[in-house]
Design brief:
mainly alpha; Farnesyl Diphosphate Synthase; globular; Polyprenyl_synt_CS; metal-binding; Isoprenoid_synthase_dom_sf; transferase
């Protein structure tokens, strides 16, 4: 059973509305995003184009999967929340998407992931050096795009983006350090995921409003919505990282277990009482002393996943996704905005929690 089936399934019209919002974000931001990538010196421009799914490994145009476009959609909606036109949020949408993909390029290399969006990752095709360089270039471009707007509000937006990026990097460093520890607390895991995922979604949810001239109180409330939405998003990702269908997620079976990730289901299971939690702790302690985890059989990974579920880690994480979803919606209660925009933000939050990839 996938996380999407652990929730009440959204009505078809609601899903259609979110699909339209995501497509709007992608359609409005992609031309500016492509123009930004075109500024890169060869071969970085083509390597980046491959990463975004615009070309294949031989350079031929393709209609590859370029991701869900949640962050661009949020940036445009946040501009509308401040009473501005969605176009005002485009530089923020592009900047956040550039930072997000900078992190993906580096994460894939650090984690040794060979697949993303159902095809080989950049480091696998073009080598580690290009993955690092292109990632760095995308981060620089993000700040360049925002600062070129040239307003005081753009400088405010750039400050929020750089702070979010620093937190994102903090989260990645925490995530890596956890792989070498036998025990991580639930509190530590939530802090890491709040940095790694929540910070950038928080920025996406407020950056358009800042560009539209919103005051700090409004921007902070939208940021809180995005932060908790990010924690809900990551909780679902953690479920998919263990129990997701490879044909849907584009990753290997038991992906997070292969990487020794101390994700929420693992950490919650270890914090539980009972025989399953104790057995899981014994296995993970032995794993920490064995550098050849990649040689484990599918059955051994399946056994670990079963212990995590038996100890309650799967159910706790599913409930945590719902808790964070509710907290995200609560953050918007006191914010004055057009009712249509509020309902769109609510619908996008539902989409984030009810998904299969």
């Amino acid at each position: 059973m996938t996380p999407a089936h652990e929730q009440q399934v959204a009505a078809p019209e609601a899903r259609d509305g979110v699909t339209a919002l995501l497509e709007r974000g992608r359609t409005m931001s992609t031309p500016v995003l492509r123009a930004a990538v075109d500024r890169l010196a060869p071969p970085m421009n083509t390597v980046a184009a491959y990463h975004f799914g615009w070309i294949d490994a031989t350079g031929r145009p393709t209609d590859g999967d370029s991701g869900k476009a949640v962050r661009p959609a949020l940036a445009l909606m946040s501009a509308e929340a401040a009473g501005a036109a969605p176009e005002v949020g485009i530089p923020g949408a592009v900047a956040v998407e550039l930072v997000h993909n900078f992190s993906l390029l580096h994460d894939d290399l650090m984690d040794g992931d060979e697949q993303r969006r159902h095809r080989d990752t950049v480091w696998k095709v073009h080598g580690p050096a290009q993955a690092i360089l292109v990632g760095d270039a995308l981060f620089a471009l993000a700040n360049e795009i925002l600062l070129e707007v040239g307003t005081t509000d753009a400088r405010r937006a750039t400050k929020r983006l750089t702070t979010a990026t620093r937190k994102l990097i903090d989260g990645q460093a925490q995530d890596i350090s956890f792989e070498h520890r036998e025990r991580v607390t639930v509190k530590e895991c939530l802090e890491m995921e709040g940095n790694k995922t929540g910070a950038l979604l928080a920025c996406a949810s407020s950056i358009g409003a800042v560009l539209g001239g919103a005051d700090d109180a409004t921007a902070d409330a939208l940021e809180a919505y995005g932060y908790h939405l990010g924690l809900a998003f990551q909780a679902v990702d953690d479920l998919l990282g263990i129990w997701g269908e490879p044909a849907v997620t584009g990753k290997q079976t038991w992906s997070d277990l292969r990487q020794r990730k101390k994700s929420l289901p693992v950490v919650a299971a270890l914090a539980a009482k009972g025989a399953a939690a104790e057995r899981l702790a014994e296995l993970l302690a032995a794993d920490a002393k064995n550098p050849e985890i990649g040689d484990f059989s599918e059955e051994e990974f399946a056994d670990r996943a079963a212990l995590i579920e038996e100890a309650g880690g799967r159910e706790w994480t599913s409930q945590e996704a719902r808790r964070q979803h509710a907290t995200a919606l609560d953050a918007l209660r006191g914010v004055a905005m057009p009712e249509e925009t509020r309902q769109n933000l609510f619908a996008l939050a539902d989409f984030v929690v009810v998904r299969e990839r």
